[in-house]
């Protein structure tokens, strides 16, 4: 239990004042006390769950009240801690966030599975509207991500229901808010429970294609870096992105299950300092390797609805 707590505190230490740090420590103490003796379905001590949820959220540079609410998010629902106590100890804002989270899960619990599927769009919108504060959704998504990792521990009928809900409701919400890494993880964690056979088949088709391509791509990086430097382009960072399994499966369905036709199995994400530099880099890349016709997309000039901005291209290499 201790390492997780330490990890969380240490991650935030630098950006917190003395008072704030004390608030965080108090929240963890309070959660530890409230969940004392409780176990998760997976068998581990319950407290690990809220601490992990809070830790996930540290990656998004959110305010302290969000982190504190994440630490406390299951105390009202699972430990019958009165909301008033949270309010007195941690303030009205934290109490509001915890209350909203409690409301969302009680609401979802009553919803029969069939309706979730029939009205998933309105269900998603209802969650968004109910939350009033986007931080509630962010905590909820981190919460679901952690729960999804232990879907295996649920009863048979619950497994499928929760995984479906994750795939249909929460993953799209994550994408809509621009938390694409969480969206992708939610999809891949739910995929084997919702589409058992398709999951197995996709795994078989993908095989080690991704690894092979990634190794090849790694050899190209120095070539690209050299060329960018020659053109005085300041490279902020360069990252590999391997397409996640669920997304490959959706693509495969459109491509007659031919893995060779999934062009973006692996990709490079090149981050530059200035917007203009992106266009310059694109020209350099197309000079090095021929672009695949019809694959270029300018999301800088035409950002995605969630604000995502970048240039996409596929090249023959
Ligand atoms: Mn939870």
List the main descriptive attributes of the protein structure presented here.
317 residues, mainly alpha, two-stranded antiparallel sheet, two-stranded antiparallel ribbon, 4 strands, 65% helix, binds manganese (II) ion
Structure description:
Helix 2 packs parallel to helix 4 (64-72), helix 4 crosses helix 10 and helix 9 packs across helix 11. The longest helix has 22 residues, at 209-230. This protein has 16 helices and four strands. Helices cover 65% and strands 6% of the residues. The protein has a two-stranded antiparallel sheet. A two-stranded antiparallel ribbon has the order 3-4. The protein is mostly helical. Manganese (II) ion (MN) binds next to loops. Manganese (II) ion (MN) binds at residues 49, 73-74, 143.
């Amino acid at each position: 239990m201790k390492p997780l707590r330490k990890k969380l505190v240490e991650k935030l230490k630098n950006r917190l004042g003395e008072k704030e740090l004390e608030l965080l420590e108090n929240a963890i103490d309070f959660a530890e006390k409230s969940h004392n003796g409780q176990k998760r379905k997976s068998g581990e001590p319950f407290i690990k769950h809220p601490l992990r949820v809070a830790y996930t959220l540290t990656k998004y540079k959110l305010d302290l009240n969000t982190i504190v609410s994440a630490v406390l998010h299951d105390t009202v629902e699972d430990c019958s801690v009165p909301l008033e106590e949270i309010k007195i100890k941690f303030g009205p804002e934290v109490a509001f966030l915890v209350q909203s989270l409690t409301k969302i899960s009680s609401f979802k619990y009553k919803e029969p599975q069939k309706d979730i599927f029939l009205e998933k769009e309105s269900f998603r919108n209802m969650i968004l509207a109910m939350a009033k504060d986007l931080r509630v959704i962010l905590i909820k998504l981190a919460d679901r991500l952690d729960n999804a990792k232990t879907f295996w521990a649920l009863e048979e009928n619950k497994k499928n229901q929760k995984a479906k809900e994750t795939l249909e409701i929460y993953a799209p919400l994550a994408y809509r808010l621009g938390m694409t890494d969480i969206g992708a993880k939610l999809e891949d964690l739910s995929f084997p429970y919702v589409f058992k056979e398709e999951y197995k088949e996709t795994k078989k088709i993908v095989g080690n294609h991704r690894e092979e391509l990634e190794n090849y791509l790694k050899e190209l990086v120095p070539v690209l870096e050299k060329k960018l430097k020659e053109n005085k382009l300041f490279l902020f960072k360069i990252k590999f992105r391997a397409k996640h399994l669920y997304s490959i499966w959706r693509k495969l369905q459109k491509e007659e299950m031919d893995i060779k036709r999934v062009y973006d199995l692996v990709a490079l994400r090149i981050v530059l300092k200035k917007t203009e530099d992106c266009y310059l880099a694109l020209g350099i890349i197309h000079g090095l390797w021929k672009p695949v016709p019809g694959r270029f997309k300018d999301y800088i000039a035409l950002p995605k609805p969630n604000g995502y901005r970048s240039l996409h291209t596929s090249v023959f290499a």
